[in-house]
# Entry
Amino acid sequence: MAGDIIPIELGLTAGDFSTLWAPEWREGDDEWEAFLGHEEDLYGFPTVAELAAFVRSDDDNDLVDHPSWPVVSALAAYELEPDDLHRFDLVAVPELVASDPEADVLAELQATFDIVASIGDVCELRPVTSFFGTNPFVGAVGGGVENFLGREGGELWDRIGAAVAKHWDDVLDAVDSIVTSPDVDAAAVSVAEAEITAAAENAVDADDATDDIDSDSDEEDEDDEDDEDENVDRDPIAAAAAEETFWTTVGIDPIRIITSDDTVYTLRCYLGDKPVFLGRGGAISVFGSERSLARYLADDHDHDLAQVSTYSDIQTAAIDGSLDIEITDDNVYVLPGLADDLAEGPTAVDADQLDLAVELFTDAAEFAGDNSVEEALATSTPLGWYVSYTLEPSQGRLAPSAPFAVEAEAWRDLEREFESRLRKK
# Structure
C-alpha cells in the first residue's frame, strides 16, 4: 500500500463500508490525520469497486493533499481491498465486551476503539470524544489479558462492559450520521469490478499452478496405488460425507443475487418442492454483505425460515461466531445483461445464467403465492417459447424469430417484479 493511506472497512448499522484512512503525517511543522471525505462527511462505499471508481475520479476531498494521493489514485482496484487487520466492526463491540476478555477479543476491541477514537478526533464528534474522555479505563484493553486477571481485573472488565452498554449506541449513531456514499459513475464501477474479478481469477490460477507442480512430484508414487485401486468401487456414502458442509447438513442455502444496481445476500430452502426464503409474506429479506446477513441471523426475528427445524442450528452458529456464509456457484444469480442478451438472440444468451434466473424468479413468485412468473414463462407466450428453446434446444425444433424486443421487455418486467419483492435490511 502506498505511503500511509490505508484502505479500511467500517462495520456500521447500515452495513459494511470501505474507505481510506491516513494516519498522522507531517507537512512542514504540522501533523495531520484524515479520512476520505469532505467537510462534515466521511465517505464510505458499499463495495471496493465503488471506492476505486471514486478515488480515480475525485479531486475534491480531504486526502488530495496527502503526498501519497497520486499513487493511491492510480492503484488497481483490488489493491484497495482492506486487509483483515483493517476491518473494524463497530456494531460488534457490545457483543465483544459481553464475552470473556481473551486475547483475540481484546485485540479486536483495541483496534476498533483506536479507529473510532481517530474518527471522533478528526471529525469532531462529541459523543465519541466524550466516550473516550469520560471512560479512559477502556484503554486497558490494549494491555492484554493480564489487565483482567483476578477480582480487580474482573471488575475492570465489568466497568468497560457497563460503559459500552450505556454509551456505545451514541458513539455508533454519531459515526453513522457522518458516513455518506457519493454517487459514482456506473461505467467506472464496472471497470473496477472487472479488475477485482480478474485479480481473483489470476490468484486462483496461480494457486492451481502451484498445486499442479506439487502434485507432479507425487504422481509416480501414486501410480502403483492407483493401479491397485482402480478396480475397487468407491463408497458413495463416504464420498457424499466428504462433500457434506454445514449448509448441506441444515438443508438451507445462502444465496447471492446480483441485480441491476446491487449485490445482496439471503437464505433459501425447500420444504418438499416449496421454496422458502428468509422473509415473510412473500417479501424476501436481503443484506448488503455476508457479514450483515450473519449479524441478522444471530438475533431473533419473525420470518418464515424460523419455522424450519434446522434454522436454530444456523442461529446458534451465528451467535457463537462460527457461521461461515459459504455460497456455491449454483446459488449465485447474475441478472444484469440477460435482457440485453435476449434482445440479441438465443446464441448470445448464457443459458446457465438464464436457467438460474428462471429458477430464482419462479421460486420468489411461488414464495409469494403468485403465479405471474409461471404464466409469463408458459411456452404459449413469446417469452416462454424463447426461454424454453434457449434452455432446451433440439434439432428440428422451431427457433424463435427476430426481432426479440418484445421478449426482452417481457423479461425486464420479470426482473422488475422480482426486485420489488426484495427488502434490504
Notes: Residues 12 and 384 are 43 Å apart (CA to CA). The chain is about 50% helix and 15% strand.
